[in-house]
Design a protein that fits this description.
about 10% helix; about 220 residues; single chain; mainly beta; about 30% strand; 7-stranded antiparallel β-sheet; 15 strands; binds fe (iii) ion; Jelly Rolls; 4-stranded antiparallel β-sheet
């Protein structure tokens, strides 16, 4: 029978332009738009977290104020101050435990990790970074967690940014990876300790988040 829809014969004009999954390494990849179906629920949960544990600009051990504002949810939260970096169960700003990880955060991070081969990922910490234009995160490794066997899942929301993505030594060559609202990055295994950072965020406006970028990183910290 003749195929009147011709769906099977429409050529893909852009076969490599924006694949849904872009591998950055053997165990690191970008899942384009993966968080989009979750965004409504994620933003509602985020409003509650922010109300209970406000964003704050933490101090570095060297006494500088970070340009990125941070808060946390989960059993453990990442903190930096004059004494150093660590995960702790209490928010020193409020004197209260960090808000619990909302169910939608667990569902999203677990689904993303499974997509990259890390089935059963169960984070106990979510660091929430808020970037205004001009904010950046210098090249670093995430090594304050106890268990490097678990991956980290990053969810980007709001205005665009460019990730810097290097190797296991600070001096290794870096790649630049643009990330948009809804993009998810998962890294683990041999890529778990790769240096990374966020270039200075440019001025832009997002329909929902205004002049902000928010990044959630899900971690197994304890
Ligand atoms: C590592 N946050 O909070 S992870 C952090 O946008 C942090 O706020 C970033 O780094 C942020 O510690 C999101 C960026 C990232 C992307 C790809 C990687 C880290 C990576 C690939 C391999 C290793
Ligand atoms: Fe990091």
């Amino acid at each position: 029978m003749k195929d009147h829809t011709r769906l099977g014969s429409i050529p893909d004009l852009f076969p490599e332009s924006s694949p849904a999954t872009e591998w950055l390494g053997p165990s690191a990849c970008v899942l384009r738009g993966f968080a989009l179906p979750y965004v409504g629920e994620v933003l509602a949960a985020l409003a509650e977290i922010e109300a209970a544990a406000p964003f704050r600009q933490m101090q570095t051990p060297g006494g500088y104020s970070m340009s990125v504002a941070m808060t946390n949810c989960g059993e453990l939260g990442w903190t930096s101050d004059r004494d150093g970096y660590r995960y702790a169960p209490m928010d020193v700003l409020t004197g209260l435990p960090w808000p619990a990880l909302p169910e939608v955060f667990l569902r999203l991070s677990q689904a993303a990790a499974a997509e990259v081969g890390f089935a059963g990922f169960l984070p106990d910490a979510c660091l929430i970074n808020r970037y205004a234009p001009g904010s950046k995160l210098s090249l670093h490794q995430d090594k304050d967690e106890q268990d490097f066997g678990a991956p980290i899942v990053s969810v980007s929301l709001g205005i665009p940014a460019v990730f810097q993505f290097g190797g296991l030594k600070r001096s290794d060559k870096t790649q630049r990876v643009p990330v948009l609202h809804g993009d998810v990055v998962v890294w683990g295994g041999v890529d778990r300790l790769r240096y990374h950072g966020v270039l200075t965020v440019k001025a832009a406006t997002h329909a929902v988040l205004g002049a902000h970028r928010i990044n959630l990183t899900f971690r197994k910290a304890g």
